[in-house]
Amino acid sequence: FLVGDTRHIIKEAAKKSCFVCYKMGASITCCETGCDRTFHLPCAPDGECVTQYFGAYRSFCWEHRPQQTVQARPSQDNTCSICLDTVENKISYKTMACPACQDARFHRHCIQRLALHAGIGFRCPCCLNQEPFMTEMLTMGIRLSKRPPSWESIQEVRPLGQRHSRCDAGTCLCPEGREHTEEEGPWQLRLCSSCAAEGTHQHCSSLGNSTYSWECSTC
């Protein structure tokens, strides 16, 4: 966008209210012809809206979002293939399925986290299908990362279960250094809510006490 275009978008968004939180400044409009629902990007999950992070970057409200069409599977334990917790017994915004094996079920937030963590190695966690699976997930609004899988990082591999404990901010402001952390206050370490592979001191990224999630620049 040109500077003028950006200013126009901001000006128009200021006039529109989000149908999820009802506050002004909603800059995203459903792409369905004739639908005038607008929403904030952070409100999309609560409103069960979908934004496709490819091509024209289209967005849809809960009524017009793309729907998965998978065959009904035989009666099985309704568990997420990623976290192993219970999922709904039907496909919905929050419960998704693999279009290839028609069997894997997973929470939307689980498959989103896996997508950012797996990067270019993203595939079905059950049948390991990649192309149709990735295309379906993109269409359903899952955001992918173009980086290599985090487990192939050239950084030193930490022992299983050991929490990341270093500030990775561009400029660390802590006088005790990047490795110093505290339970509370400005030097409390916040981990990326998507990959948990990077962290920042609260003060180094200007995070307030009421900020409960933070994403690294890669995610």
Automatic annotation (TrEMBL):
GO molecular function ontology, one term from the record: zinc ion binding
Domain RING-type: 80-127
Keywords associated with the record: Ligase, Metal-binding, Zinc, Zinc-finger
Keyword GTP-binding in annotation: no
Domain PHD-type: start-end pairs: 1-65
Source superkingdom: Eukaryota
SUPFAM superfamilies hit by this protein: FYVE/PHD zinc finger
Residues that span the membrane, as ranges: none
One Pfam family in the UniProt entry: PHD_G2E3
PANTHER family linked to this entry: PHD FINGER PROTEIN (PTHR12420), PHD FINGER PROTEIN 7 (PTHR12420:SF47)
Protein's recorded name: G2E3 ligase
Organism: Erpornis zantholeuca
Phylogenetic classification of the source organism: Eukaryota, Metazoa, Chordata, Craniata, Vertebrata
Encoding gene, per UniProt annotation: G2e3_0
